[in-house]
Amino acid sequence: MTAQLPPEPICVRVNEAARMIGVGRTKFYELIAAGEVETVKLGKATRITTASLHDLVRRQRGA
Predict the structure, then answer these.
(1) Cα separation, 44 vs 62, whole angstroms
(2) Which residues cross the membrane (predicted)?
(3) 41, 61, 40, 42: which is closest to 51 by C-alpha?
(4) How far apart are the first and last CA of the chain?
(5) Using an 8 Å Cβ cutoff, are 40 and 46 in contact?
(6) Is 60 exposed, middle or buried (0-12, 13-18, 19+ CB in 10 A)?
(7) Could you tell me if 42 and 13 are in contact, meaning their C-beta atoms sit under 8 angstroms apart?
């Protein structure tokens, strides 16, 4: 029997996104302000697309 992994979320909270890439909240908000990651507003909540986190890491690896 093959165990299936749960699907990766499309969006995560700011704290979770910062943890995923290993930076603090302040640095992460700087990345948001610089347009380095994509945010989505769901009501009052701000979410970060996991695709934009992958893109950020790819861009940084190429720099």
Answers:
(1) 34
(2) none
(3) 40
(4) 42
(5) yes
(6) exposed
(7) no
Size of the chain, expressed as the number of residues it contains: 63
Give residue-wise pLDDT tens across range 5-27: 888 899 999 999 999 999 999 99
* Residue 59: closest CA among 39, 31, 40: 31
Q: How far apart are CA 41 and CA 23, in angstroms?
A: 21
pTM: 0.83
> 29-58 pLDDT, tens per residue?
999 999 999 999 999 999 999 999 999 999
Query: Can you read off the two tokens belonging to residue 40?
Result: 């989505």
